[in-house]
Write the structure tokens for this entry.
Amino acid sequence: MNFGWNLTEAASEIDTAIHEIGHTLGFPHEHQNPNSGIAWDEEAVYHSLAQPPNSWSREVTF
Ligand SMILES: [Zn+2]
């Protein structure tokens, strides 16, 4: 697994390693589970992710 930066420079990066190892084992993010019960304010999400640093279009956010 290549993270693109040195994970040993900050102790908190163990969280990044564990997170990404979870993905390699097949675990998605909680918010991607259709049974999570999250009531999204979709317009707020689109608006937020349209701002820097993401500046994503609606299609990318979706
Ligand atoms: Zn992730």
About this structure: The pocket of zinc ion is lined by residues 19, 23, 29 (CB under 6 Å). The CA atoms of residues 7 and 13 lie 5 Å apart. The mean pLDDT is 92. The two ends are 27 Å apart (CA to CA).
